[in-house]
Amino acid sequence: MPIKIILLLVVFAGVFYLVSLAYPFFEALMDRWQRKRMDKITPKLDRMFLDIPLNKLLLIDVLSPLVSGLLGFFISRNIWVAAVAAVAGLTFPVLIIKRLEAMRRQKFASQLVDGLMILSSSLKAGLSLLQSFEELTQEMPNPISQEFGLVIRQMQMGVSLEEAITKLKVRMRLDELDMVVTAMLVARETGGDLTQTFSRVIYTIQERNKLIGRVQALCVQANMQGIIMSLLPILFGIFVYKMNPGFFDVFFKDNLGRGLMIYAIISEILGIIFIRKLSKVDI
Q: Does residue 113 sit in the same domain as residue 187?
């Protein structure tokens, strides 16, 4: 008995020593990985004027895969499903930020025509371009007021108008804003009338939005077919599982079944992406 206890203590001490040696390496590796993720996420949040403390971002980044993995395990009682759910949880913060960026960009695009009308009327009233920007920030809601407010602050700090609005174009990545910035730069170089330029750009954007609306109306049927085809395998699988859960035992208990399940999930995701690409029309 004493010999067994001594052996256990020796093994425990050896494991503890190895863990203590490896811990700094894994800690540095984890810290480097988190820094890379934060370096990608933080600029996107800054562009959206979202002030979230770094410790909260790290907490969300850590909890997301942990909570997803636990939910996957409690629902399926299978460690492989939990592992897949945990890996998927790593992508949730990035996907949410991308969705927030897309929503903010879409809202900016919907406000752009009204903002150009304010700029045009302000210039007609005799205000300078900088004063017109200030008028826009006072009358329009976010996000367009935030973006043009940043342009104003940059110009007040000595940045040229050309550079400030070019940075705005890079931040928003909108075709409509590209037209506005290009028209403004050309008008300033050639000495053109900005009020007429804005009027032409407003008309172009409105006609383009009408065309996009018509195309989207024609693509509704294709989009619905794509959604139905994407959901059909998932709904059929849920239906079969509810009717007879034993049919799915091979997918959770056998190595070949697990491989087929992973292959089916990957194929379903690729199919959804492919169908969305086919039903999307760029104008």
A: yes
